[in-house]
Amino acid sequence: MTTETTPRAYATVTGPNATFIAPNGEAEPISAAGDEDIRHIVVRRATDEARRTGTALELITSGDRGEHHLIIGATGDVAAAPTADVIPPPATTPEATEPDPAAPTAEPNDVSAEQDVPASRHSFIAPGAAAPKANTGWRRLAARAGIPIAETKTQLRRREAIGRVSRHWAGYRNIAVANGKGGVGKTMTSAMVAAVFARYGGGNVLAWDNNDTRGTLGWRTEQGLYDTTIRDLLPAAHDLLGATASVSDISRFVHHQPDDRYDVLRSNPELLAAHQRIEKDEFDLLLQVAVRYYRLIVFDSGNDESADRWLRMIDNSHQLVIPTLPSPESAESASLLLDALRQRDRHSAALAANAVVIVTTPEAGSRHDTKTIAAGFADQVRVVETIPFDAALKSGALRFDALGRATQDAWLRVAAAVATGLD
User: Start and end of every CobQ/CobB/MinD/ParA nucleotide binding domain (predicted)?
Assistant: First the structure.
């Protein structure tokens, strides 16, 4: 509880700078360095003052970070002050000035007189959203004590990435995940990219195993209510495109991922490639079905870059994602793919120029190789991202929640880069 005799300190905050006025009236300039929040420095300065004098003090702050009224205890504890009239900081009183003889004098009935002109009306619509405040960990406790803490740069970048991934576009978008070499992380990339878009942007995201040669997307994702594959969907395609088809009819042919909220269209890894080839016309028909039911499609491609379904995937994609490992062989395969696309046609060349390359660290302790390979693609594509080693990516079911926070943030950056290309 404060009293009239409780010492008061004031601070006026402007950007990274503040003026601290101690209870004795002495003004002291304060500045923040680096990423440090100027408000933290002000509170520390007030805390030092309270400890030095051995008495609690009121801290009243104003400026471009808002107004706050705190009680700083003699032991350094901080709490929000009870609601009360805030006494302005001491200031010099300007001397009275003589009226300007040239200024017009308002007549009593003059509608322009100050007393007859209403003040600017308060708008009930906020001019803009306030800067988000950090609301986790110790920052949340500080906010509850009356000290709202702004987001760190890392939190701000994460929120901006989520904003980009959450966008919905007019019309569908297709993402091709490709690299002619096997075992470089195409399935993992397809699942994680689909998961990020579905979790943050809402459902209607499909991961399509566009693979003639034992695609493993079905092995690394959860099975839905039906044991169906792309071969089962093909004969039902015309019915699914019919005027009486329901949005739920597609559920018989795809496998929903409950946690990550996207669907999987499986191939059958138990069949030989000769028994599950998809010809050009068949691919086009399946794509008509997919874009009717889904806003975003992520193709997990096979390794045969001459297959009709692979070429049609490229022809119908809006963004290319190329995963690779930090090894010369997989990186060279990725680079050769980019070369071939640049020479194929204008659309393919645009995909190559706008591509996102992902370099995944396969084992702990191999970050140097990852950075070296990533640097080699920097002048070939629009974005290069790296994924840290995470045991949850090596084998078993692919689930976003199973990843460490650093890995989750890395995939979020990847998806945000992809989303930028989809614009």
Answer: 175-394
